[in-house]
Amino acid sequence: ASEPLAYKRILLKVSGEVLMGDQGFGIDMNTVKAVAAEVAAVARLGVELCLVIGGGNIFRGLSKAAGDMERSSADYMGMLATVMNALAMQNALEKQGIDTRVQSAIQMNAVCEPFVRRRAIRHLEKGRVVIFAAGTGAPYFTTDTAAALRAAEMNCDALFKGTSVDGVYTADPKKDKTAERYQNLNYLEVLSKDLKVMDASAVSLMRENAIPIVVFSIRTPGALNEVIHGKGTYTVIT
Ligand code: UDP
């Protein structure tokens, strides 16, 4: 714990798919608990933490819009899915003794706070983990973009993307044995090589605001803790 922190305030983006664990759908509570334990460990070090959780484990607008549904309606359903994930994560974090607040981009006052930037900053200063739900509140966006937007608004030192692999590879490491992990990349390489890290609007927003994107494995116990100290394996995009 006495090791210096490489980052003091971060936004961690976890896709909804991570939370389904080995199930094909929905929320696997053991996985939520495991991710919460990773987050709790760094929160206890005094790192100021913002969280954005996707909704793809429950509902993804684009895939449903192809059918009978209006794209905007499908996207609103996707945003509501992120609220469910946020509440599951809040519950798991509080069981581990971490104070949290959920702030939603779509107001639902019986469930959580509305997004109010200055209030969110205050929560961080008080040591609370702030979970941003409902994405940007607008259809045609993704939670990657919401994560980038909140990282910029909240003056985060980095945007952490927790995935199921420990960085960005030249090819899919689960399919191609010759795939190699990049240690460093720049934003333009990610965009021009069309590397599947985050969507292009999220990467562009981070580029414009010079906020590093750190890609690491949220499924490896202790990895977040190492990366926050600048150690372990990850890819950093600057
Ligand atoms: N969504 C949206 N606007 C936003 C964020 C999300 O419309 O600002 C909708 C969109 O339909 C998306 C769904 O919410 O498919 C779930 O989010 P996402 O696909 O980004 O989740 P992830 O892939 O991270 O699990």
Could you characterize what this model shows?
The chain is α/β, with parallel strands linked by helices. It has one domain: Acetylglutamate kinase-like (Carbamate kinase), CATH 3.40.1160. It is 38% helix and 17% strand. It has helices at 16-19, 29-43, 61-65, 71-95, 117-125, 143-153, 187-192, 200-208, 223-228, and strands spanning 9-14, 48-53, 100-104, 113-114, 129-133, 158-163, 184-185, 213-217, 235-237. It has a nine-stranded mixed β-sheet, sandwiched between helices. Helix 2 packs across helix 4 (71-95) and helix 6 (143-153) runs parallel beside helix 8. The chain starts with 8 loop residues before the first strand and ends with a strand. Bound molecules: uridine-5'-diphosphate. Residues 15-17, 54-56, 60-62, 74-75, 78-79, 81-82, 135-136, 138-139, 141-144, 146 line the site of uridine-5'-diphosphate (UDP).
